[in-house]
Amino acid sequence: CMHRNDNLYLEQFAIDICNHFMTTFCQVAYVKAYVQEVPWQRLHEDGVPHIHSFICVPDGIRFCEAEQCRNGPLMVFAGIKDLKLMKTTQSGFEGFYKNEHTTLPERHDRILCGELFCKWSYGECKDFDFNCIWKKIRECILEAFAGPPDCGEYSPSYQKTVNCIQMFVLSRVSQVSSFLLMMFYFSNSEC
């Protein structure tokens, strides 16, 4: 895999680690590198950047993994974790299977709040711009979750929302060969 410009992205750094161990040490049979980027931003006071202080702004943590067996293909995965999302309307809980053990009533309008974890794999690694792909996937997740800014988009269930996000990403980002999404639901008191 190659990156398209001189910026070193997480994925390329993980790939470089794998390549280093595979080419430097003949006794190494398997390498797995995990890299994550914590979203730190410089503190500002009255518009002036602080000389040495930062704040963690948790709008999702970017991570990646690269792994390789000797004489095997290089596998690259990327993802987002700890991304908290909330819809205050346009979300329901209806149309689900019911039996004698069902206690929850259907709801047409409710708050949907959760924390998202997603991980995807790239197919055959070519000259990918990993940063551009990561940003596009994040935009797809937010668009599929929220819908248009002026009216939103109704979803009858959490499960439908998760499925729509997965399908939207796979339809828009051809470099992704598989996509796993988990969204941990929070009750209203946890939001």
Automatic annotation (TrEMBL):
Signal sequence segment: none
Record's catalysed reaction(s): urate + O2 + H2O = 5-hydroxyisourate + H2O2
GO CC terms in record: peroxisome
Short name of any one Pfam family annotated for the protein: Uricase
Main localisation: other
GO BP, sorted A to Z: purine nucleobase catabolic process; urate catabolic process
The keyword Metal-binding is assigned to this record: no
E.C. no: 1.7.3.3
The keyword Ribosomal protein is annotated on this UniProt entry: no
Compartment(s) of residence: Peroxisome
InterPro entries given in the database record: Uricase (IPR002042)
GO molecular function, one term: urate oxidase activity
SUPFAM superfamilies: Tetrahydrobiopterin biosynthesis enzymes-like (SSF55620)
Pathway(s) this gene product operates in, as recorded in its UniProt entry: Purine metabolism; urate degradation; (S)-allantoin from urate: step 1/3
Alphabetized UniProt keyword annotations: Oxidoreductase, Peroxisome, Purine metabolism
PANTHER family cross-referenced by the UniProt entry: URICASE
Family statement drawn from the similarity comment of this UniProt entry: Belongs to the uricase family.
Main function: Catalyzes the oxidation of uric acid to 5-hydroxyisourate, which is further processed to form (S)-allantoin.
Official protein name in the record: Uricase
Organism of origin: Zosterops lateralis melanops
